[in-house]
């Protein structure tokens, strides 16, 4: 069973005062993964860049560097393409307990991109947070498997957090969102990653797309009007990585299309730019994920 | 020296050393364990012992004078920011015999090569982790292990080119590495300055003391850097975080010494995959960067996103092989304390040899066996953060020494080890050797570490024959840092035979080669332009304030409306002399002038810098307790003479390079604007009586006026002399001639059409050249000021941004 999607993403900026030359690093192209295939599609900019180079970053995400040598008052970056997503089979939970996890980790001698070791310590946007650690320990059921622990934290956060796009911004820290118990997918994911790491469970950030309109008879999922974010957690050598969406309290499935993996938002931001501008600017995001 | 060491030591030496007693169980640099003077130290100690206290004080003062004159400083950080402080030189150098040094150097070279291989693996195949020589967790948690650099193949074939090592001597007399400095090691330039100062202290002893010279090391490294350039006329530059960093003085000093450009990230841009420096003549390629900026700040696109210091695209350029970085980004990963726990085994595995120069014994507490060992030997351990790059002795609140926390209560150390073991290391609390420091009339033993430097050349690593010693203020080895009141010293490596005099000049006499023409980064030009403007503004302020006080003295505050209107005019510039005789605004003008020069110290002569610093200091001194009237007028005259001294240096001694032109353009623009403003205010119809004479006085043209017109001042004579006379260096027209000539020289050759700035200068110059004094009304003068502002904007847009 698989599902085809036509996906478009457009992020545009308007500047009050035309700014000087700029350089942008984009992570907008869905990555090729087991169960996910990019059939056609490309990243582009309007106006077209003066220089461009496509590549792959440390974690294997497709990147696109662009330079615009002219001053621009408007610029838009877009992805449009078609993706085939297989419906993942939710297997049985064969993961061990937290104690086994530590042994599995010690036995994992790798610093390659898939190594869980990258996802244990603090990362640029996610310093250790004792408050969130205490919450995690308190929310952790006794004696359960790693995967059950991950699901329990997701469920708990989903219950306590109010989805509120007005409450936070892209720069809101995990601890601010945690204290307010409000935010969007980025915030809930950041809090959950911090919580899992505090328990010794390697956890990372996934950016991607969510189907815009639900299949008939099912409710619309939260977060479908912009790029989405969820969490991946390492449940031991046997189980490996699982992906879970705390905003919707569900395992990531056929409705989720992955763009990039990272330790936190800073590793996967769809645009990272260096535009020198004076005065205000306006950003607009538009996402469409249409099943075909 | 061989013969000299056999001579019996005179009685003065014994007297001089009386009371010098190193603590028990500690190695001492000066004395052997049996209490005898080490041979390498004998010439120095004989020399010191033979001096009278007065002679010695004079000698030490020579060194201090040198440091003061060259303006060496360090930044002292306090609760409320930081200030520049005098350089704390310990006048007695550390002496190490050449034979011992040769052995030490072998260990340094081996370690440098080992670190290169470790870095190549960490940013390449990752075999050390895969084969169990390094824990994956330790690498992954290292904040300086920069994932975007993984996979980079350095264009030069090497990641590391310039390294430093902090070494110390343990009680058994052997040397230990206490810390590896791989990120962007500082201190080599300071070592040179310490040498300059110390060789002045011992100006009679030094030339015959067979001390190895340092210049050869710098020459080899300079030539190596030049050899790393791409074959496209590109340049070598030194990248600094800027003047607010602790070691900016050194960056500027090294740049001047080696003849490389000193750049900040904002000078650089990546275009079409190439790294370019923005200069006043457009973009120029740079292909070798000696990086003095920490890696993670170098590129906000791929590294620390919050960095305001970085150049977007730097990582991309590095990855594409467009630049060689010295050292490659990511090299800071090798500085982590915890790595030292694994280096001995790694060395054995990679080279089949043991470390020739061991590092301080280190245990990573993320491993159960090591953790248990540290716990069981707490009394002789320093326990601190595993990923810290600080020396074991640079202790803060998060460190435990001998099982006790330095900071507040943390609970028990063994709980701490269990809970956070993977973030902690234990390091053996060795006691550092002591070296003599002069305290009053006596030598006293003080703990010491030495920073040694290694540079990669086409022939392999070379070790600087000398170093940068840091000496504790007290016997406490945790107070070595300058911030904690420690001092620094030169390190003499002495040879048994006379040593060759070295200079930076090439060793082989080849054909004469003119260096690449100098280029001027736009930011440096901007600072020189504003330096010119501020100094001129200050000079005008001083003249006007003097004129005010002279009239105040002669007529009293209420006698003349002119005194009041002059005060009002000055108040418009924030220089109201009626509130304080030397207005604080004037002191600020000197400070900002000095601030502009501080940002371009690599392009500024030591004399020019000293003159400017003196100016700012003198202004502050005379402002203290100054009285209105005659007293203040005399103070202003003194300042004027000092300013004339600075201007003389600029005019007579500065090479007419591009930077000089920007300074000159800035001065001419400001002088023209000041004159136009003053004439508009004091030659109008409503100006109080005496305004015309005032203008002539402030315009420094009393004599000329008297000679030329031999009449009382009239509006026409004053305007003629101060606005329209092309021969009067204070006149408006004269400034426009300067602007026209200098702007024409700034323009790149072969350009067509007249740039905006040139067009505006020509228009204004023509207007002044054809005007008659009657036409120059106050309104016209205000119009000139607007024209001058437009010229300033056009120049800025064209050359300075």
Description of the structure:
- The complex is a heterodimer of chains A (292) and B (801).
- Chain A is an alpha+beta fold and 292 residues long.
- Chain A has 2 domains: 2-86 and 269-291, Immunoglobulin-like (Sandwich); 98-268, C8orf32 fold, CATH 3.10.620.
- Helix content of chain A is 21%, strand content 37%.
- Chain A is built from 6 helices and 15 strands.
- In chain A, the strands form 4 sheets. Chain A has a 5-stranded antiparallel sheet with strand order 12-11-10-9-13. Chain A has a 4-stranded antiparallel sheet with strand order 3-6-1-15, with no helix packed on it. In chain A, strands 4-5-2-14 form a 4-stranded antiparallel sheet, with no helix packed on it.
- In chain A, β10 and β11 form a beta hairpin.
- The longest helix of chain A has 15 residues, at 146-160.
- The two termini of chain A are 14 Å apart.
- The relative contact order of chain A is 0.23.
- The model of chain A has no long low-confidence stretch (mean pLDDT 91).
- Chain B has 801 residues and is an alpha+beta fold.
- Chain B has 4 domains: 94-338 and 432-494, no CATH class; 361-428, no CATH class; 520-654, no CATH class; 655-801, no CATH class.
- Chain B contains 26 helices and 21 strands.
- In chain B, strands 3, 4, 5, 17, 18, 19, 20 and 21 form an 8-stranded mixed sheet that branches. In chain B, strands 6, 7, 8, 9, 10 and 11 form a 6-stranded mixed sheet that branches.
- In chain B, α2 crosses α3 and α20 packs antiparallel against α24 (732-746).
- Chain B is globular, with a radius of gyration of 31 Å.
- Chain B starts with a helix and ends with a helix.
- The model of chain B is unreliable at 509-514 (pLDDT under 50).
- Chain A binds chain B through residues 21, 23-25, 50-51, 53, 57-59, 65, 67, 69, 105, 108-112, 115, 117-118, 120-122, 124, 266, 269, 272-274, and chain B through 122, 126, 129-132, 136-137, 139-141, 147-148, 150-151, 269-273, 300-302, 304-305, 312-313, 316, 320.
- Chain A: Residues 177-248 form the Transglutaminase-like domain.
- Chain A: Pfam families: Bact_transglu_N, Transglut_core.
- Chain A: InterPro entries: Bac_transglu_N, Papain-like_cys_pep_sf, Transglutaminase-like.
- Chain A: This is Transglutaminase family protein.
């Amino acid at each position: 069973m698989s599902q085809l999607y036509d996906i478009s993403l457009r992020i545009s900026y308007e500047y009050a005062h035309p700014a000087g030359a700029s350089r942008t690093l984009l992570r907008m192209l869905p990555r090729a993964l087991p169960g996910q295939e990019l059939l056609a599609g490309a990243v582009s900019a309007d106006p077209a860049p003066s220089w461009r180079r496509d590549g792959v970053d440390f974690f294997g995400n497709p990147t696109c560097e662009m330079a615009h040598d002219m001053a621009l008052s408007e610029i838009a970056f877009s992805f449009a393409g078609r993706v085939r997503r297989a419906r993942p089979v939710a297997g049985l939970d064969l993961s061990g307990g937290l104690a086994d996890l530590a042994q599995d980790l010690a036995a994992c001698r790798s610093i390659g991109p898939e190594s869980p070791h990258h996802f244990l310590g603090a990362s640029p946007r996610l310093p250790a947070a004792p408050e969130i650690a205490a919450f995690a320990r308190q929310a952790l059921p006794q004696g359960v498997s790693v995967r059950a622990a991950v699901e329990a934290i997701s469920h708990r956060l989903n219950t306590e957090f109010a989805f509120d796009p007005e409450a936070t911004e892209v720069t809101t820290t995990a601890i601010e969102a945690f204290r307010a118990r409000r935010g969007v997918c980025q915030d809930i994911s950041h809090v959950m990653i911090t919580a899992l790491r505090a328990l010794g469970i390697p956890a990372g950030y996934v950016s991607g797309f969510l189907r815009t309109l639900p299949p008939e008879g099912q409710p619309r999922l939260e977060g479908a009007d912009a790029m989405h974010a969820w969490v991946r957690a390492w449940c031991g050598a046997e189980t490996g990585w699982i992906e879970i969406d705390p905003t919707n309290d569900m395992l990531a499935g056929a409705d989720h299309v992955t763009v990039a993996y990272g330790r936190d938002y800073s590793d996967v931001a769809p645009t990272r730019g260096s535009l020198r501008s004076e005065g205000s600017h306006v950003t607009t995001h538009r996402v469409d994920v249409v099943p075909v | 020296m061989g013969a000299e060491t056999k001579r019996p030591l005179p009685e003065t030496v014994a007297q001089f050393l009386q009371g010098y007693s190193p603590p028990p169980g500690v190695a001492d640099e000066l004395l052997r364990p049996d209490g005898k003077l080490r041979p390498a130290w004998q010439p120095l100690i004989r020399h010191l012992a033979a001096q009278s206290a007065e002679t010695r004080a004079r000698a030490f003062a020579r060194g201090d004078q040198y440091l003061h004159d060259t303006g060496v400083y360090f930044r002292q950080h306090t609760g409320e920011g930081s200030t520049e402080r005098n350089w704390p030189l310990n006048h007695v150098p550390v002496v190490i015999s050449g034979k011992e040094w040769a052995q030490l150097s072998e260990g340094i070279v081996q370690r440098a090569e080992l670190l290169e291989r470790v870095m190549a693996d960490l940013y390449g195949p990752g075999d050390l982790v895969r084969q169990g020589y390094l824990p994956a967790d330790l690498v992954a948690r290292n904040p300086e292990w920069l994932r975007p650099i993984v996979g980079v193949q350095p264009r030069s074939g090497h990641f590391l080119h310039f390294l430093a090592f902090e070494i110390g001597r343990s009680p058994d007399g052997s040397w230990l590495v206490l810390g590896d400095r791989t990120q962007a090691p500082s201190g080599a330039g300071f070592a040179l300055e310490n040498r300059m100062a110390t060789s002045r202290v011992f100006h009679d002893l030094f030339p015959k003391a067979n001390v190895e010279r340092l210049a050869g090391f710098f020459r080899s490294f300079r030539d190596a850097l030049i050899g790393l350039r791409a074959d496209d006329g590109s340049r070598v530059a030194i990248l600094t975080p800027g003047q607010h960093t602790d070691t900016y003085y050194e960056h500027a000093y090294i740049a001047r010494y080696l003849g490389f450009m000193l750049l900040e990230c904002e000078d650089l841009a990546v275009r079409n995959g190439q790294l370019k420096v923005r200069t006043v003549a457009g973009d120029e390629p740079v292909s070798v960067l000696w990086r003095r900026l920490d890696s993670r700040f170098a590129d906000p696109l791929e590294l620390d996103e919050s960095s305001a210091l970085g150049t977007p695209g730097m990582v991309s350029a590095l990855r594409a092989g467009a630049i060689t970085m010295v050292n490659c980004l990511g090299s800071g990963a090798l500085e982590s304390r915890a790595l030292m726990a694994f280096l001995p085994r790694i060395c054995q595995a990679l080279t089949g040899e043991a470390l020739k120069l061991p590092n301080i014994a280190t245990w990573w507490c993320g491993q159960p066996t090591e953790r248990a060992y540290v716990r069981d030997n707490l009394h002789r351990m320093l326990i601190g953060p595993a990923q810290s790059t600080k020396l074991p002795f640079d202790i803060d609140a998060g460190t435990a020494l001998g099982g006790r926390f330095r900071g507040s209560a943390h609970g028990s150390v063994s709980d701490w080890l269990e809970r956070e073991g993977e973030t902690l290391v234990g390091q053996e609390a060795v006691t550092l050797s002591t070296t003599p420091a002069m305290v009053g009339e006596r030598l006293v033993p003080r703990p010491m570490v030495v920073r040694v430097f290694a540079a990669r050349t086409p022939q392999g690593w070379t070790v600087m024959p000398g170093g940068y010693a840091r000496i504790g203020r007290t016997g406490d080895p945790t107070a070595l840092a300058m911030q904690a009141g420690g001092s620094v010293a030169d390190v003499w490596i002495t040879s048994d035979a006379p040593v060759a005099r070295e200079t930076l000049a090439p060793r082989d006499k080849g054909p004469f080669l003119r260096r690449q023409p100098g280029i001027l980064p736009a930011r440096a030009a901007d600072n020189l332009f504003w330096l010119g403007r501020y100094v001129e503004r200050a000079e005008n302020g001083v003249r006007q304030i003097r004129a005010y006080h002279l009239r105040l003295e002669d007529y009293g505050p209420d006698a003349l409306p002119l005194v009041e209107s002059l005060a009002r005019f000055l108040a418009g510039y924030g220089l109201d002399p009626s509130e304080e005789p030397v207005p604080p605004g004037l002191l600020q003008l000197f400070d900002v002038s000095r601030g502009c020069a501080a940002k371009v110290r690599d392009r500024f002569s030591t004399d020019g810098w000293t003159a400017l610093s003196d100016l700012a200091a003198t202004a502050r001194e005379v402002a203290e307790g100054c009285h209105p009237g005659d007293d203040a007028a005399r103070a202003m005259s003194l300042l004027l003479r000092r300013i004339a001294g600075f201007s003389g240096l600029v005019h007579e001694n500065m090479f007419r390079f591009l930077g000089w032109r920007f300074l000159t353009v800035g001065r001419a623009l400001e002088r023209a604007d000041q004159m136009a403003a003053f004439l508009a205010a004091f030659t109008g119809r409503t100006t109080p009586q005496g305004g015309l004479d005032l203008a002539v006085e402030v315009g420094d043209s009393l004599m000329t006026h008297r000679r030329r017109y031999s009449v009382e001042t009239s509006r026409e004579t004053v305007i003629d002399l101060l606005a329209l006379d092309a021969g009067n260096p204070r006149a408006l027209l004269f400034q426009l001639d300067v602007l026209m000539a200098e702007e024409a020289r700034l323009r790149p050759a072969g350009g067509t059409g007249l740039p905006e700035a040139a067009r505006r200068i020509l228009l204004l110059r023509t207007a002044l050249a054809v005007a008659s004094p009657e036409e120059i009304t106050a309104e016209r003068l205000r119009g000139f000021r607007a024209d001058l502002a437009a010229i300033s904007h056009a120049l800025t847009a064209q050359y300075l941004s």
